[in-house]
């Protein structure tokens, strides 16, 4: 009885994994499209675009809080 339950559990898990793969392949899309390597300030492997680098430089330009909060 327990071997049958184990096989049933494996079959259910396999069906769920396959359904997740099909759903991912059909429904998940990258809305921004591909990022060109020339515009990747962080490198083409991480996909950090020039827009992200600009936002980071703006964040660093803001005054940072100093002192303790106590």
Supply the key terms.
single chain; 70 residues; mainly alpha; 54% helix; elongated
N-to-C series of helices and strands: HH
Structural classification: mainly alpha
In whole angstroms, the N-to-C terminal distance is 64 Å
Low-confidence stretches: none
Largest sheet at a glance? none
- What is the C-alpha radius of gyration, as a whole number of Å? 24 Å
Chain-averaged pLDDT: 77
Give me the count of strands. Answer: 0
**What proportion of the residues form beta strands (DSSP E)?**
under 5%
From the spread of the alpha carbons, the general shape counts as elongated
Helix share bin = 40-55%
The helix tally amounts to 2
Q: What does this 3D model show about the protein?
A:
The protein is mainly alpha-helical and 70 residues long. The radius of gyration is 24 Å and the shape is elongated. The mean pLDDT is 77. The chain has helices at 2-27, 50-61. The longest helix has 26 residues, at 2-27. It is built from two helices and no strands.
């Amino acid at each position: 009885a327990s071997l049958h339950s184990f096989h049933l559990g494996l079959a259910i898990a396999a069906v769920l994994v396959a359904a997740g793969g099909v759903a991912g392949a059909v429904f998940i899309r990258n809305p921004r499209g591909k990022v060109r390597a020339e515009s990747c300030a962080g490198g083409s492997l991480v996909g950090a675009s020039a827009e992200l680098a600009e936002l980071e430089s703006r964040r660093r330009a803001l005054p940072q809080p100093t002192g303790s909060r106590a």
